[in-house]
Design brief:
7-stranded mixed beta sheet; alpha/beta; 11 helices; single chain; 38% helix
Length: 288
């Protein structure tokens, strides 16, 4: 082998790595194998999806009174995760996750894996599946305003799932008073030492409490320096104007929708939404 051939061989990995820098940067280091060309196609797909809702606001408001019709006509996935998978039990309770193998790879490279599951109602299939599919080293925290039900003590069930149970509800600043079962995200991050950390997955089902509280959540994430990588939230009915504002506010915080699933057990009046947080630059295409 000539010296020129050796030099060429050594140069190839650098060239390959350069081709993924755009995805690596704009995905906050999550996607490390998507080349620039394919990442640009994802960016263009996002642009073509907008606006991702009915822009006739009078009609939008009217349809919000009929949630199953509303969700059928507003907001569809605007980003694709190449290897997404549904974790947890079949039917109500399972959640779509973006490329969990990437979480395992990050853990293998000495990155921490923190997962929050809010509103489990004593079901821990999701927690078990995260550890099985993503990484056995994920530190999972389960939160619920109830501590027991169906003849089960939730803390005991959490231990079986290798999760830490907290008898805590995620509430607003008004709800999170001394002695209350509710705490804000800011209080929880401080309590658990998770300020300035990455929460790889935040799964939430708070039975309608999302509408009036989500602004506090986003504010607490920002103030605490916390990156929520994947945000999985069940939206109940379609309370106006929150049913538009929550999408606008999450998009402005860098979140893009990668999955949507109707809850058919509730006559499709509720919907499971899944977002992934990317750099805000993903949402724009620079003209050179």
């Amino acid at each position: 082998i000539t010296q020129h051939a050796v030099a060429s061989t050594k140069k190839e990995p650098a060239e390959v790595s350069m081709s993924i820098l755009l995805a690596l940067k704009e995905s906050l280091s999550f996607f490390d194998d998507i080349n620039d060309k394919n990442w640009m196609l994802l960016k263009e797909r996002f642009q073509k999806t907008q606006p991702n809702y009915d822009t006739n606001l009078k009609q939008f408001e009217r349809h919000s009174r009929y949630p199953n019709y509303f969700w059928a006509n507003n907001w569809e996935p605007e980003f694709t995760c190449p290897h997404e998978i549904r974790l947890g039990k079949l039917g109500d309770g399972g959640k779509w996750i973006c490329d969990p193998h990437r979480i395992g790879e990050r853990v293998a490279n000495n990155n921490e894996c923190i997962v929050y599951s809010v509103g489990s109602n004593g079901h821990f299939e999701f927690e078990k599946e995260v550890r099985r599919v993503a990484s056995q080293n994920c530190k999972i925290h389960t939160f619920d305003i109830k501590s027991e039900g169906r003849h089960k003590v939730f803390a005991d069930e959490a231990i079986k799932a290798n999760s830490t149970f907290h008898h805590i509800g995620i509430g607003s600043k008004k709800q999170a008073t001394e002695g209350s079962v509710f705490k804000t995200f800011g209080q929880i991050f401080k309590m658990l030492g998770h300020e300035n950390k990455v929460i790889e997955i935040l799964k939430m089902d708070v039975e309608g409490g999302e509408w009036e509280n989500y602004k506090d959540w986003i504010e607490d994430w920002k103030k605490s320096g916390v990156v929520v990588r994947q945000f999985l939230l069940e939206l109940h009915n379609a309370r106006y104007p929150y049913c538009r504002e929550i999408f606008d506010d999450l998009r402005n915080a860098g979140f893009v929708i990668f999955h949507k699933e109707a809850n058919y057990l509730g006559n499709a009046n509720s919907v499971e939404m899944a977002w992934i947080q990317l750099d805000k630059k993903f949402q724009t295409i620079e003209v050179l």
